[in-house]
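tool_call: predict_structure(chain=1)
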Amino acid sequence: MRVIKAGATYFGLVFAAGFMFGVVRTLWVVPQVGEMWAELLEAPLMLVVIVVAARWVMPRFELRSRAASLGTGCFALGLLLLAELTLVLGLRGMALSEYVESRDPVSGSVYVAMLVAFALAPMIVARRD
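tool_result:
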């Protein structure tokens, strides 16, 4: 049960920050530099949020084992994908295939790498502590 609570908390922290960054990116950064560059500029900020959130969540829920920390990251990733696909596809009225095809190859690849980092960060952080 701690893994689920930790994963939900981790998801919530990262999702909230990502939502705020997304608003700023969409309204102010994309018009200035374009979508690809705006997404690439956002990625390092999100990586910092991911690491800080993982470092905050893992000790609070006293999760130290590799299995528990990986479970936390994977559960959070599942919630993130569910939320993102529900919101993105619902708001844009797109099919999943259309959404994937609409992604820029460069920033889309960085996005996938960030998803992997999001899932693995709790395990990496727990291992270091």
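agent: The radius of gyration is 15 Å. Proceeding to next step.
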